Amino acid sequence: MTSPPPERGFASDNQSGVHPEILAAIAAVNTGHQPAYGDDDTTARLRTVFAGHFGEQAAVYPVFNGTGANVVALQAMSDRWSSVICPEGAHINVDECGAAERVAGLKLVAVPAPGGKLTPEAIRRHATGFGDPHHAQPRVVSISQSTETGTVYTPGEIAAIAETAHGLGMLVHMDGARLANAAAALDLPLRALTTDAGVDVLSFGGTKNGLMLGEAIVVLNPDAVRGVEYLRKAGMQLASKMRFVSAQLVALLEGDLWLRNARNANAMARLLADAVRDLPGVEVQQEVQANAVFAVLPPGVADRLRKRFAFYTWDAEAGSVRWVCSFDTTEQDVAAFAAALAEELPR
Length: 347
Ligand SMILES: Cc1ncc(COP(=O)(O)O)c(C=O)c1O
What we know:
seven-stranded mixed beta sheet, 37% helix
């Protein structure tokens, strides 16, 4: 009989529980009655908190999940005949069940992106057919920060993308499901990677950084969108008891919880990579930049190790796996995992 996996694995940062400060924040607003649909005091406070991070012009729209944030944001930035340029491996392209196409009616132009990162050259190469009625009209460039492959864009790289997109009459959307990890990795404020780098609309992630549930669409450039409030409702992302989503985001961003959580996740990923990189037959694929480690293991090892710890295969053909660390990953978790990996390696 195989023993059950231990409590904390490395499958994803959304497999972790809820940070105690977030739970406390939910409990703290669980008093009396408050207006629904965002007219409550906590959501008003959320607007001030987000303005503090992203600038006075920033408008914040809490939603339930990341797919919803992306779909509503992209829809608000586009017309029915628009296309969105994104990396091949973008979450919106491979992990959202075609929601951008099905729900928003957009065409995704998914382009090769080494390391998960778009470049100005790639955008220029694929932003074609302007004014041609046979061609979906390039409208948005969508990048993820940090990327699905664990890499991080520098502010300069984002600014160059924004300059290129804006020069072509396009807009920039950032899928920031792990923006906090990127900012922590670069030791920069959130606005340095968003508002100040020319991003127009952000999907801000909370769930992967300690929330129970909750993300936010953050409109950084008011001229980049139309009808977010209507699209959010029509897209089934408007919470009636919004104060409970807003309270979590306030607790994350009012102090430094976002940074503490992200720093821990990133530090544990670095620790994990260091703990396994010299094991025989283990190839850590790239320098750890945020909270994910990618590695190639000898045949059969991943399947044996997975009986003890949860994690995903990344590329079955290449034999690579992905290990993600969370706000609550500990040094003991990492040591136990590295020891188990060493035990499972062929002798
Ligand atoms: C890059 C990225 N964007 C967005 C999401 C949000 O997805 P969900 O709709 O599950 O909240 C995820 C979750 O895995 C993600 O990794």
